[in-house]
Design a protein that fits this description.
single chain; 243 residues; alpha/beta; 6-stranded mixed sheet; 4-stranded antiparallel sheet; 8 helices; elongated
Length: 243
């Protein structure tokens, strides 16, 4: 089997550490054209031409963005994207397809793609989309938060106590418990109102007892430690962020 193609900017071009992109596209002329164009923009680019190889490269490599065709031999782009997201990989994915329809776009975004471009497309538009996704990724806060001896990974949706000895390990939370914790941890040290938690964890149409928030906060205190979440009377809750 021929090795995948790699393209790297010439020495002194762009930055010292260029963003690394993976193109998964079975139309070889298009893939080569995109690779050369993106290399001229200062990116390092790898190219593969089928879905299985694309998934392998994406899993084994470290990429800043993937340009992923949908109609691929062997493993289509939807399945590649779904597999990456199921594995917890949040690399930005720009999907390409010759199809044109709302259903296709919805399916692509539902599998976890970040953006969608229908062929034929303007190269200028593709570069603009790539740059926008990379800017968004660079500006995104880290998904891992540390509060005392707790590590909260909002991407993997896991909470781990890093205490030494037998007190450490993963703390299992229900989906709703984690969702409430997430609202507090991303604003650690700030007061988050009960209404804000209801709006984000449930939805605007929720008509049940608003005290349901107290039930989940109590559950979090039992599992994580009573000292961690403070009730600010008349205002809401604050996740304490010890220095």
């Amino acid at each position: 089997m021929r090795p995948h193609a790699s393209f790297h900017p010439p020495a002194g071009d762009a930055s010292r550490h260029p963003c690394r992109l993976l193109i998964v596209e079975d139309e070889k002329r298009l893939a080569l054209s995109l690779a050369k164009g993106l290399m001229a923009e200062g990116y390092a680019v790898d190219v593969v031409h089928d879905g299985a190889e694309g998934l392998r490269r994406a899993t084994e490599g470290t990429y800043d963005l993937i340009v992923l065709d949908i109609m691929l031999p062997g493993l289509n782009g939807y399945r590649v994207c779904s597999a990456l997201r199921a594995a917890g990989d949040d690399v930005p994915i720009l999907m390409l397809t010759a199809k044109d329809g709302e259903y296709d776009e919805a399916e692509g975004l539902d599998t976890g793609a970040d953006d969608y471009l229908t062929k034929p497309f303007s190269y200028v538009v593709l570069v603009a989309r790539v740059k926008a996704l990379l800017r968004r990724r660079a500006a995104a806060p880290s998904p891992v938060h540390r509060v005392g001896d707790l590590k909260v990974d909002t991407a993997a949706r896991r909470v781990v106590r890093e205490a030494a000895g037998q007190g450490g390990g993963e703390i299992v939370l229900t989906a709703k418990e984690f969702a409430v914790l997430e609202q507090l941890v991303v604003r650690a040290g700030q007061v988050v109102s009960k209404a804000e938690i209801l709006d984000h964890v449930w939805d605007f149409a929720y008509e049940g007892d608003p005290n349901i928030v107290e039930v989940y906060v109590s559950a979090l205190r039992r599992k994580l430690g009573a000292h961690l979440i403070t009730t600010v009377r008349g205002a809401g809750y604050r996740l304490e962020a010890p220095r």
